[in-house]
Amino acid sequence: MQVDLFYELAVPAHLGRTEEQVYHETLEELALADSLGFHGAWLVEHHFMEEYSHSSAPELFLAAASQRTKNLRLGHAVIAIPYNHAVRVAERVAALDILSHGRLEVGLGRGFSPREYAIFGSQMAQSRAHLQEGLEILRKAGGAPVEHSGTIYHLDRVNILPKPLQKPHPPLWVAAVSPQTFRWAAQEGIGVLSGPFKPWFLIKQDLKAYRQAVQGSPWAGTPSFNPRFAMTIGCLCLEDSAEARRLATGFTWYYQRLLEQTRPVLAQLRESYEFYHRLGFLEPLLRRGLHLRLLESMGMVVVGNPEECRKGLARYARAGVDHLLLAVGAGMVPSAVTRRSLELLKKEVLPALDAPKAQVA
């Protein structure tokens, strides 16, 4: 199991950090993660989500990160295809792959915010068509001039430049929530990024269904095949378990805000987003409020000392999760604390996940 990092670039007012601090401290954290030997780091694309996520131009941030790191894989998770022209996406992906010397991972998604759809002039009802055609164009962009005729795009021998270093393209992933998307990803032979607001008992079902479906993918055996399963969880590991738990109470703000982002979709059933409406466990959580133990019981966070974190993370390895994306600190603690946690995780926790016993079901 690979362990990567996950960032939203949160700027919560109650912590008093400025956008400038968050951006530059996060770049320093990525440089540290690179020096420690972490596998990768992922950055989201969100718009107009004040305090929760100020990551509206992730390609620029990743370009900066590419110049401060040497080995760290850089994940774009995810590019909201309905808000971005697929040709422009292919161009930016290739440029980032070149700047990072072939270290880019590309996550695609449909987006989920009605406000974002409205402002960017896209229709939720066309979200699946955007995703399907965007994927097809990305797959073609690294080779000969692209020809494509679909519902959204019509391209007549467009030579998309530059070309990515990784051939035929960087590894492709998709953000998955509904069972239908997991099945679609498996058939397309691309990786899935699950979470971060689904509890572990649901993700286990998704993992099983994806593993079964990916066996029949027509992309198996091709260079495009990327049958990996990743999930995102909050994490804070410190020498003192009590200190970790005290600081991690801020996770409740993070997850509360995350769940609130789904309110507009839950409140009104929208075509092509039916599964969001059926996630009935979310509304009771929003009404009752969250607390750290509830998040732990749902498998959404791992907090504690190294021994507790080894135990907490190992269960995902045993279950067959290929990648964990750790929101270390989740932007809810000072950068100095996040750095301490990164060092401790790499030194005392992650090596145990590579041991054979961590992989035994």
N-to-C SSE series?
A: EHEHEHEHHEEEHEHEHHHHHHEHEHH
**Backbone CA Rg:** 19 Å
Helix content: 40-55%
Under the CATH scheme, the architecture is Alpha-Beta Barrel
Provide the CATH top-level class.
Alpha Beta
Report the end-to-end length measured between terminal Cα atoms: 13 Å
The number of distinct β-strands equals 11
The coarse silhouette is globular
Strand order of the largest sheet: 1-2-3-4-7-8-9-11
Number of domains: 1
Unreliable segments (pLDDT under 50, ≥5 consecutive)?
A: 268-273
**How is the CATH topology named?**
TIM Barrel
Q: Please state the structural category.
A: alpha/beta
Mean pLDDT, to the nearest integer, reads: 91
Record the SSE blueprint.
Elements: E1 2-7, H1 19-36, E2 40-43, H2 58-66, E3 73-80, H3 86-99, E4 104-109, H4 114-120, H5 127-141, E5 146-149, E6 154-158, E7 172-176, H6 179-188, E8 191-194, H7 200-214, E9 229-237, H8 241-247, H9 251-260, H10 263-267, H11 274-278, H12 282-288, H13 292-297, E10 301-304, H14 306-319, E11 323-328, H15 335-353, H16 356-359
Parallel strand pairs: 1-2, 1-11, 2-3, 3-4, 4-7, 7-8, 8-9, 9-10, 9-11
Antiparallel strand pairs: 5-6
